[in-house]
Design goal:
The chain is mainly α. It has 24 helices and two strands. The chain has two domains: 12-138 and 197-428, Up-down Bundle (Amino acid/polyamine transporter I), CATH 1.20.1740.10; 153-191, no CATH class. The mean pLDDT is 81. GO terms for molecular function: amino acid transmembrane transporter activity. It is found in: Membrane. The chain crosses the membrane at residues 39-58, 64-83, 190-209, 221-240, 252-270, 290-315, 335-355, 383-403, 409-431, 451-472, 478-497, 518-539.
Length: 548
């Protein structure tokens, strides 16, 4: 590819050499498969299980447990593709680096830019969730934190208006009271989520100090988190009322799939494992194992916890940001609610820690390639961490988490992630076709999709038309047209090139989930993408190391 093309690609040998050249003042290799699995669990079982699972259950009822199964299957297809890439290109950068090798610079930039949004937004959700549990924990000890320092203005104002109309439910009542009691400064109610901002800066300080300290803290916090979850499942199971599972899907498939953003947000953490590749002792062996281990463990735990939650109380009561503590308070097990609140404060910190580690390493990789300013690739001489990038990450996450709503952030996090996952799955197909993955230390099990992809397309289309919802679905969700066209194109290419089935399934499941996202997700992503392209063409394109 000409060096003036936006599709110029990095060779795998070039990526590996660049990584080796940077190790003189670079990162320290100390992570094993247990540490990586722990990081994955830390990221996946974070705010998702302690917080957003409540909102998803409120929308979809008990059937959200099936959505967790569906999303986890989609993630396993994707994780296998990540694992193959990680065994071939064991460097920091995650999907950004993989896209650079397979599709070229412009796609790498888009993915890197999307991942910046994903990690920042994910951590804002985690920080806000941490704040909810922290305040709940203090209440358990009889300490009242001022309401107006625990809610953002938008959430409190919306809850106040709902309460005026008699429509406030669950956590909205507390937010409405916070709005009423908030002091007025310059004619405006003063409300900020102070604990969310403070914990972000504290965790950023730990990540700045070093990977070894971060690893030790993460391993301890994950063990604690798993103990609490097993306790919740085993105790909660005795209080399940089967009648709460009826109706199983009160709002139908639309209600269940409406929780896609919340549920998928819970699983994107496995991507963060690949950002630590250069700090692994044996990345080509350990990264693939860790990704698969953590996904299987987390999928089982999510399904169990969803069934227990929706069995203990009616799904309509779960529109709260601390659902695990809430359900035990409802059945007067205040001791358990207290244990969960204390544990969640500690355990959610581990998710915050892993995301704060991942974000700077993506910036570092983009900076090394010349696409971002050189300062982002600075490695601290003593702590061996990307110092400047870590500080900027702390500021970018802490400031918005003080002022903005969790629901707003959950809506932002998924489009770019789905896009990254689709490109990683497509990248594996491309490298297999080019014969570049023959020496990979880990390869996705090959299942010939030559006839299967087209056969499944015919069956899916026939079923959709026969049931009468093919045209109605497309009118409701125009993006489904893209889904069916992509499936058709993949069927043709699979027949011609004998594509492996699993990466194709990864592309299709992620693309279908993309069609379920709302207009807000797409609007914000397109605006973010436009900003990113302006930066790329004004700076990255000219300073790219491939252009020289």
């Amino acid at each position: 590819m000409p060096n003036n093309s936006i599709f110029r690609q990095k060779s795998i040998s070039n990526v590996l050499k660049q990584s080796e050249d940077s190790h003189g003042s670079g990162l320290v290799k100390i992570l094993g498969v247990r540490d990586l699995t722990s990081f994955g669990i830390a990221a996946i079982i974070g705010a998702g299980i302690f917080s957003t699972i409540g909102r998803a259950s409120f929308e979809g009822g008990p059937a959200v447990s099936l959505l967790f199964v569906f999303v986890s299957i989609a993630c396993i297809f994707t994780a296998l593709c990540y694992a193959q890439f990680a065994s071939m290109v064991p460097v920091s950068g995650s999907a950004y680096t993989y896209a650079y090798v397979s599709f070229g610079e412009i796609f790498a930039w888009i993915i890197g830019w999307a991942l910046i949004l994903e990690y920042a937004v994910s951590n804002m959700v985690v920080a806000i969730s941490w704040s909810e549990y922290f305040v709940s924990m203090l209440e358990g000890f009889g300490i009242h934190f001022p309401d107006y320092l625990t809610f953002d203005y938008g959430t409190a104002h919306k809850a106040f208006l709902a309460n005026q109309d008699g429509k406030a439910v669950g956590g909205d009542l507390a937010a409405a009271q916070a709005y009423e009691h908030a002091p007025i400064i310059a004619g405006i109610k003063f409300l900020i989520d102070l604990p969310a901002g403070v914990i972000t800066m504290l965790v950023t300080s730990l990540v700045y100090i070093g990977i070894k300290e971060s690893r030790t803290a993460s391993n301890f916090l994950v063990v604690l988190k798993l103990v609490v979850i097993f306790l919740v499942i085993s105790v909660g199971a005795f209080y399940v009322k089967p009648e709460n599972w009826s109706p199983f899907a009160p709002n139908g498939a639309k209600g269940v799939l409406g929780g896609v953003a919340s549920v998928f947000f819970a699983f994107i953490g496995f991507d963060s494992i690949s950002t630590t590749a250069e700090e692994c002792k044996n990345p080509q062996r350990d990264l693939p194992r860790a990704m698969i281990y953590c996904l299987v463990i987390c999928a089982v735990l999510y399904v169990c916890i969803t069934l227990v939650l929706t069995g203990m109380v009616n799904y309509t009561e779960l529109k709260v940001d601390d659902p695990l503590a809430y359900v035990f308070q409802k059945i007067n097990l205040d001791f358990m609610a207290g244990v969960i609140s204390v544990s969640a404060v500690v355990a959610i910190t581990s998710a915050l820690l892993v995301y704060q580690m991942g974000q700077p390493r993506i910036w570092m990789s983009m900076s090394r390639d010349g696409l971002l300013w050189k300062k982002f690739s600075d490695i601290h001489p003593k702590y061996k961490t990307p110092s400047f990038a870590t500080i900027i990450t702390g500021i970018v996450v802490a400031v918005p988490s003080l002022f903005l709503d969790m629901g707003f952030f959950v809506d932002l996090t998924s489009v770019g992630t789905f896009f990254a996952f689709i490109l990683v799955c497509g990248g594996v197909l491309y490298l297999d076709y080019k014969g570049m993955s023959k020496d990979a230390k880990f390869k996705i099990p090959y299942l010939n999709g030559q006839y299967l992809v087209g056969g499944l397309l015919i069956i899916a289309l026939a079923y959709s038309v026969s049931q009468g919802f093919f045209f109605s679905e497309i009118s409701d969700k125009p993006l489904l047209v893209v889904f069916w066209l992509v499936w058709g194109a993949l069927a043709v290419m699979a027949f011609k090139f004998k594509f492996s089935m699993l990466p194709v399934l990864g592309i299709l499941t992620n693309l279908y989930l993309m069609t379920e996202l709302g207009i807000t997700n797409w609007t914000i992503f397109i605006i973010w993408l436009a900003i990113g392209l302006v930066i790329y063409f004004s700076y990255g394109y000219k300073h790219s190391k491939l252009s020289k």
